[in-house]
Amino acid sequence: MKRILLKLSGEALAGPKKTGFDEATVMEVARQVKVLVDEGIQVGIVIGGGNFWRGRTSENIDRTKADQIGMLATVMNCIYVSEIFRTAGMRTSVLTPFECGSFTKLFSKDRVNKYFDRGMVVFMAGGTGHPYFSTDTATVLRAVEIEADMIFLAKAVDGVYDSDPKSNPDARKYDEVGIQEVIDKKLAVVDMTASILCMENKMPMLVFGLNEKDSIVNTAHGKFTGTKVLV
């Protein structure tokens, strides 16, 4: 793989606190990503906003405004994580689909390619820039746009199950699953819009647990214990 899009769960970055940031977790992610960058792999990153805001749980705020707050949560996450990456010795840039003053630069494929050529890690914040689309959809959209070879989906769970392993101790984990089965059975790997976008653009995903030791590096090196989502 030459170019990957790494999706990080906001909740996973919060660690045991479940909200905000767990700096030890973020430092560990930075350490692993630096291994890939040093090997010449180009890394783009999308981060969810669930460690700060889950707008769909509120019934008192207009959905458009709630989604805008969520977009800003992903910008905060990307700025924070990108700075931790810098302390780990990487060069970074944060791109958004809307103006954030001097905090970020506007997303474009040309800009991403320019930064990748400079060896930078590119954070793609702000979702799609529109309400009613999740960071799942933004992840697949950006992966397709930048022509990533693969999506690395680093989650709080270690793969794809046939039911929720938190509520069903007998839930069965898939080693491999086709995107059509994900859609048909609503397996909640990513949301339905993102799943269909994956299927139509033949974008494969590797789903694994962020908090497993060396999970990002092992996934890139083929020592993979999560679930392959095939297209």
Automatic annotation (TrEMBL):
NCBIfam families: pyrH_bact. It holds the Pfam family AA_kinase. It is found in: Cytoplasm. Inhibited by UTP. The keyword Kinase applies. It comes from the Bacteria. InterPro entries: AceGlu_kinase-like_sf, Asp/Glu/Uridylate_kinase, Uridylate_kinase, Uridylate_kinase_bac. Homohexamer. SUPFAM superfamilies: Carbamate kinase-like (SSF53633). This is Uridylate kinase. It catalyses: UMP + ATP = UDP + ADP. UMP binds at residues 49, 67, 128-135. Keywords: ATP-binding, Cytoplasm, Kinase, Nucleotide-binding, Pyrimidine biosynthesis, Transferase. Pathway: Pyrimidine metabolism; CTP biosynthesis via de novo pathway; UDP from UMP (UMPK route): step 1/1. Residues 2-208 form the Aspartate/glutamate/uridylate kinase domain. The keyword ATP-binding applies. Belongs to the UMP kinase family. It is an enzyme of class 2 (transferase). HAMAP family: PyrH_B. Transmembrane segments: none annotated. Catalyzes the reversible phosphorylation of UMP to UDP. ATP binds at residues 7-10, 50, 54, 161, 164. Its EC number is 2.7.4.22. GO terms for molecular function: kinase activity. PANTHER family: URIDYLATE KINASE, URIDYLATE KINASE PUMPKIN, CHLOROPLASTIC.
